[in-house]
Fold:
Amino acid sequence: MSYRHFVNALSFIVIASGLLVMVGWIFNIPTLKSVSSAWVPMRFITAICFVMSGLILFYINKFICGETEIATAVLPVASMIVLIFMFTFLASQIFDISTGVEELVAKDILGLDTGTTSNQPSLIAVFNFVVIAFMGLITLLKLKYFKNLTSTSGALVAALGALGVAGYIFNIPFLYFNWGKLSMPIAFNTSVAFILAGVALILLRKVEINCSNTSAQ
Structure:
């Protein structure tokens, strides 16, 4: 399997992870929302952002190999959707106000019960989504140092996801970012999806090198 195909596969898995959680909320299937009933579930808005993030990764992969027609339309839209959600939540945490975004989407529009716990994603999830969304926008600029950006951002996203997984495995709440008022805990399945998204970003460096070499021949 080539690097490009591997990135596509990871992108589809990230999209599927988000869709499964959305199905879990819509049809009230707890095992789709969280691996264990003792762990926090992935939030509905987080699931939407994973679908958008998977699309971002998929179309970055296409864009850097010259398939730009659809990518130039999808990347800014998907990236802006993620950024609007995440900056709204970030402003909510900074100014300690309720934006009602989760309630608007999940409860008012879809009629879902998203639970009584905080509907906001973990602060680390917000950070990772912002990184992925910015990579989607930066792709369109065709920067010379794009390869370095993808590998660095990918390593960061994957590392933070791995910390969350380690926190659940070793039962260390601090590692899955359960920091009280500063940050809600990140869900286990959210952490795993970030690892996959981070690996995809890292591999995009290889994809761009291969596609550049092919076009130069």
